[in-house]
Amino acid sequence: MRGEEPVVEALRMRALPEGGYDHLLEFLKLYRNAVQMVVDSIWSINEMLSKRKLHRLFYSNLVSMGFRAHHAKEIYIYAESLVESARGNGGRKPILRRLSARIDRYDYRLDLDSMTLTLKLHGDYEARLKLVSSSERVEKFRGWGNYELVVKYDGSGFWVSIYFRRAVKAVKPRTVMAIDLNFDNITIAVFSFNGRLAKLKRFKTPLRKVLTHRIWVERIQRRYPRSWRFIKGVRKAIDRHGERIKNISWDYAHRVGDLVAELASKHSSIIALEDLDKLRENNKKGKRFNKRLGLWIYRRIQFCIEYEARERGIEVVKINPRSTSSKCPRCGKKLAEYRHRILKCRKCSFVGDRDVTATINLYKKYMSKYPRCGVPGVAPNAPKPDENPSGVQGKRDDAMKNIKPHELI
Ligand SMILES: [Zn+2]
Fold first, then answer.
1. How far is the CA of 406 from the centre of ligand 1 (A)?
2. Is 402 a residue whose pLDDT tops 50?
3. How far is CA 123 from CA 46, 90, 149, 244, in A?
4. How many CB atoms lie within 10 A of CB 58?
5. What kind and span of H or E run contains 278?
6. Alpha carbon 98 to chain centroid distance?
7. What is the 245 CA–ligand 1 centroid distance (Å)?
8. Are 32 and 99 within 8 A, CB to CB?
9. Residue 40: CB atoms within 10 Å
10. How remote is the CA of residue 11 from the centroid of ligand 1, in Å?
11. Which of 66, 97, 219, 324 could form a disulfide bond with 123, CB atoms 3.0-4.6 angstroms apart?
12. Ligand 1 centroid to residue 327 C-alpha, Å
């Protein structure tokens, strides 16, 4: 079982130097050159270097340049990670242009009450910065630990990103929440480890609305195929639709993320989501997701679910969605369309709502991938008819209308 899981979040703010900033700028240049120097030598060595070896190779040299102990460590570790990722994707040797430095918590003092930050620089210099941010944004991080920051100079001023960390007690899962996303609906089903359905909820998605805006954009772009970028009015109209798409989708994703995580908290669930990366592999048709919109919106919803879940110590797993919406959860044969959104198995005569069937299959896949001690997979005894899921939303939810609970598993 897991214990404490850290949640990490960055707070990015403008930082105004108090007094001169010559030393800070000098430090950033020195830092960049030092990282480049280390990158150059690691690149020529052409082998993976352990931390100990990096230390032996570069530490004393960096310290003699005026860096503090932890600066030196940050520099060689950062340089090594740059080289590794460049090699990993077959790129060229990294050349650093931007002025930015990663600073360890031993080399700064942060005071959120007075919103001041003191950085310890090379050669025992210090820089004091006034941080600019709304008190609401900062308030959230009271009581969190901070362990590292990045300071940047972009030509016009300084920016600071402070990394905060908070330990969240991991929730011990007692149920599995399977979530099926598709164009019209999100279906959420909570199952106990022995296969009982504890809760079923369904929400409409606003994706038809999003699609309408998308179609408008395409229409305008078709009418002005070459010029839409350059005509102010046309560009404005496109931007307006784009803005609506962005707002609708983020609002929705946040709302669903919050709601799902709350529900998962209440049921101590582990959340099983479909692995959207596996979708392309499976060569799914756009039927369920609508090709015109793409997958980004589902990714956004999943992102918010994961984010909110992590904040509450709830684990999220991704399950390959292959054939979850086409296979009979009882006997494994292919399901056929029976009525609108209802599928039927020709072999065992299972009948089920398409989305609910997908959640059952997701749940079963989860159980076979992560078997529980003492739980014999999915219990053969189906839930009794009077074990109707509570909280099914009246008009907004018709998931249960078309399926009797005893037919679920
Ligand atoms: Zn069947």
1. 14
2. no
3. 32, 37, 20, 52
4. 23
5. helix 277-281
6. 27
7. 40
8. yes
9. 15
10. 52
11. 66
12. 8
Compute the distance from residue 392 Cα to the ligand 1 centre, in Å: 26
Give me ligand 1 centre to Cα 334, in Å: 8
Q: What is the Cα–Cα distance from 306 to 300, expressed in whole angstroms?
A: 10
Phi, psi torsion values for 365, nearest 5 degrees: -65, -40
Which position has the token pair 């520099």?
Answer: 75
Residue 254 Cα, ligand 1 centroid: separation in angstroms?
37
Ligand 1 mean position to 347 CA, how many Å?
Answer: 5
Tell me the CA–centroid distance for residue 356 and ligand 1, in Å.
Answer: 15
Cα 198 to ligand 1 centroid, rounded to whole Å:
23
Give the global pTM: 0.66
pLDDT digits (tens, 9 = 90+) for 69-97: 999 999 999 999 999 989 888 889 999 99
List of long-range contacts for 256-259, beta carbons under 8 Å, 24+ apart = 256/186, 256/203, 256/301, 256/304, 256/305, 257/301, 257/303, 257/304, 257/305, 257/306, 257/307, 257/308, 257/309, 258/304, 258/308
Confidence of residue 282 (pLDDT cuts 50, 70, 90): low
State residue 341's pLDDT score: 86
